[in-house]
Amino acid sequence: YHQLHTKETRLSEFNQTELKAMLESYTKVLFVRDPFHRLIATFLQGMGISPSFSSFVQEVLDSGTHNGSMAWKPLVSLCRPCLIQYDYVVMFGFLRQELGHLLHRAGLPAGSLLPELTDSQVQWTYRWLSEQMFSELSAQQKKRLSHFYRWDLAAFPLSSSFLSD
Fold first, then answer.
1. Higher pLDDT pick, 25 / 150
2. How does it sit in the membrane (predicted)?
3. DSSP secondary structure string, 38-106?
């Protein structure tokens, strides 16, 4: 199906028959990250113009799911896991072991292709950042964020997310 589209073609531009056949011909991998961690990363990368994390979160909540940036939109609305049957779901925080398994299944030499990943340090850092930034939010913002990401929290094993509480 590579001859049917260019890099700019979106899946929504294919009819159902083409889409089904094309998706069945690929190995589909979905990378999942805690939505609260995605918000923190977006804020720290300066993608929001807000002076504080709390005001950035308010901008995200005010933008809604339809007008928001892909950097913070709920993953379920971007990747459609209920419509597309992914072959692999890789959780951020377990990248080293999961990518190694994925490369092995694809018949590729996992050891030489994987960058040095320190998952435990990343998890610890995001846990600390989450505690700090979550404490900046009002009770209403916390509740609205949990509602905003409710489908991601239901679809993926994110029980350790601050938004799951």
1. 150
2. Single-pass type II membrane protein
3. HHHHHHHTT-S--SSHHHHHHHHHHHHHHHS-TTTS-HHHHH-TTTS--SEEEETT-HHHHHHHHHHHT
- What is the C-alpha to C-alpha distance for residues 133 and 53, in angstroms, rounded to an integer? 7
Q: Tell me the percentage of the chain whose pLDDT exceeds 90.
A: 22
Contact 85, 75 (CB under 8 A): no
Could you give phi then psi for residue 29, rounded to 5 degrees? -120, 130
Closest residue by Cα to residue 95 from 65, 116, 75:
116
For residue 163, give both structure tokens: 């938004």
Which helix or strand (DSSP H or E) is residue 29 part of?
strand 29-32
pLDDT score of 1: 47
- pTM (global) more than 0.90: no
